[in-house]
């Protein structure tokens, strides 16, 4: 007697669904951070986005809002790194893409734990003028912020390189816009670090442009992976 056995195909749907949700978490982080910052900048008394970095919104009675923004977007970015690893497999950026995305999240979490020092009239009641010295917790905050900033800039170029590959033919415009986003952020960050006029604003705009471009790029790559594109 011959016994015939059959093996049912292994479904990859749960993994794909999990990957999609994780990437969606990373995509959500950018607009959440941007909207939270804009709303607070428009409503917090004494805050001037041309002079005060967004991180200073974590100070004062309503500082918990910005701290929560750091924590939520940091966790979303770290979670999204796992999904990005699957989306970026088999092409450029498959190694550094997820690593950089995770580092963005880690930097944000560090920034949430360690706050900036009050200065330049914010929160209300703080003497005018810039700081001449920094506390230890502000130094650590800057370390976290720098980790996120430089990781965002690098990720723009990593994803741009993937769009510029032969496997992504027809999406070369994304490659160009990614490089532009990375350069704009680098310029805005550099201007802020040198103490240039309106540096806090150029820094925020750089973050908003680069991070939201990353979110859009991950969305496009996720859709491509769902159709078998690599």
Strand content: under 5%
User: Major beta sheet, specifics?
Assistant: none
| Measured distance between first and last alpha carbons | 46 Å
Helix count equals 6
Protein name: DUF998 domain-containing protein
Transmembrane segments: 57-84, 96-114, 139-161, 173-193, 199-221
Keywords: Membrane, Transmembrane, Transmembrane helix
InterPro entries: DUF998
Characterization of this structure:
- The chain has 230 residues and is mainly alpha-helical.
- 66% of the residues lie in helices and 0% in strands.
- The chain has helices at 13-43, 63-87, 96-113, 136-163, 172-193, 199-226.
- The longest helix has 31 residues, at 13-43.
- The radius of gyration is 21 Å and the shape is elongated.
- It starts with 12 loop residues before the first helix and ends with a helix.
- The model is unreliable at 1-15 (pLDDT under 50).
In short:
The chain has six helices and no strands. By secondary structure, it is mainly α. The protein has one domain (20-124, 134-223).
């Amino acid at each position: 007697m011959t016994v015939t056995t059959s093996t049912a195909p292994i479904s990859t749907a749960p993994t794909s669904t999990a990957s999609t949700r994780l990437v969606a978490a990373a995509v959500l982080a950018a607009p959440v951070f941007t909207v939270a910052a804009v709303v607070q900048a428009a409503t917090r008394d004494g805050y001037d986005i041309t002079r005060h970095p967004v991180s200073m919104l974590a100070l004062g009675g309503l500082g918990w809002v910005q701290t929560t923004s750091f924590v939520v977007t940091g966790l979303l970015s770290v979670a999204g790194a796992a999904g990005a690893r699957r989306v970026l497999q088999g092409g450029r950026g498959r190694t550094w893409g997820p690593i950089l995305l995770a580092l963005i999240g880690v930097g944000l979490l560090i920034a949430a734990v360690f706050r900036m020092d009050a200065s330049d009239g914010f929160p209300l009641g703080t003497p005018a003028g810039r700081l001449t010295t920094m506390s230890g917790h502000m130094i650590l905050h800057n370390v976290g912020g720098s980790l996120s900033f430089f990781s965002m800039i690098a990720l723009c170029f990593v994803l741009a390189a993937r769009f510029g590959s032969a496997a992504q033919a027809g999406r070369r415009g994304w490659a160009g816009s990614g490089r532009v986003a990375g350069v704009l952020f680098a310029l805005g960050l550099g201007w802020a670090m040198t103490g240039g006029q309106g540096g806090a604003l150029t820094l925020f705009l750089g973050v908003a442009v680069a991070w939201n471009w990353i979110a859009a790029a991950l969305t496009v790559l996720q859709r491509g992976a769902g159709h078998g594109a690599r």
